[in-house]
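Key idea: predict the complex, not the pieces.
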Amino acid sequence: MKHLLSTADLSRDEAIQILDISEDMAAVSTHEVRKLPTLRGITVVNLFFEDSTRTRISFEAAAKRLSADVINFSAKGSSVSKGESLKDTAQTLAAMGADGIVIRHPASGAPRVLATSGWVDAGVVNAGDGTHEHPTQALLDAFTMRRRILGDSGRGRDLDGVKVMIVGDVLHSRVARSNAWLLKTLGAHVTFVAPPTLLPNGVAAFDADVFYDFDEALARVKPDVVMMLRIQQERMNDAFFPNGREYARSWGLSAARLHGLPEHTLVMHPGPMNRGLEISDEAADSPRSTVLEQVTNGVSVRMAVLYLTLAAGVTN
Amino acid sequence: MLSQADITRALTRIAHEILEGNRGADDLVVMGIPTRGVVLADRIGEVLQSISGQAVPVGAIDATLYRDDLRRQPTRAPRPTTVPSGGIDGKTVVLVDDVLYSGRTIRAALDALSAIGRPKAVRLAVLVDRGHRELPIRADYVGKNLPTSTAERIFVRLEPVDALDEVAIADERTDAHSEGGAS
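Result:
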């Protein structure tokens, strides 16, 4: 695997291989020495054109646990604010010896341009592009589900028959998009719940059921996993819904909705959470919430992705 | 080159030698290197128990992520490492692999072990030693020495990973597609 750009590119076997290697990477954190020499001498650049402390430090921790050298580049206060193009920025970093580039960019498709334009030879990992994809988030979500649902027997297996409900701003969410593709590949069944204004045109392409009414969806589907999406503050003024209180009442995971869920249902959130808006304190802090496990698993999954994209010299 | 009976006999002899070298089964841990080293470790563990009457912890140590040739090969998928509940600190660890060749896998496995703990001593048991070492490593317990040329491949087949137990030797140029673990 030279690049990871989209979960839609992954076959079922490739996706399962990433999840299995993530299990091995997770095991490293139980060892006395929590570090591997695997990527010694390899340089990874975190090229972040958008603020994202959580994703960046997760990739940084993953690269460092594999003994790679890490260079952090954030667009703020950099040559980009002086008008440098993506091509020149990437080539400058490659000239400094970057073997891998982890890129977060506000423009959908920027990572694919970087990977396929021939500007640089480095492996490219998409860390979130515009409203397009965030593949490592979807992989860590799938990993978290497989661990919680199948436990130690999960190795080598997919998510066949698991019912996942994704709730909130599907329109702008790269997390929702990456999850929808990956979950479909892994055999899970996806339901979207959102106000009609926050669903993309052509939502049918995802092969998912769609509900506008959260309570009706919960009663009809009885999901195994409820994944709450973050409502970004900048959307609040764009007339997608009347106001925050009304959003929370109609599409938030309130205490009442939490208690109505089936006993085994997991509550997931990619973070950072807007408590009181899309998720209540009761839901965020309940034992069925996997929010902190998702953060921990994120490092393991990103280690697996960096291993697969950067360790081998010869492509299969 | 080796039949099922030969393999069983070799493993029994190795188990006796391990017990002799360790003066009993106290503080012994047997760690196999995936895939077929784990099968051999399990079998040696059973023989050790039947001779000594004492359960000997058996685990698996994967060395993939510690290899020095990752960049020269297509992607290798790591295999699970399982550490016995008692750990390896202060124990005598017997590493087990099917074929000893360049010694590079063993070097990587030694690094992997030291990330898990600090054994009192590490020994090495292999079913086949085929020579051509590239590092200063030797086995303490050897099932069979098989002098080979580098153009030959050794196929170790072991149940339940394979359909039968045998060690075979083949010329790479004529028999490159045989099934089984090749070293």
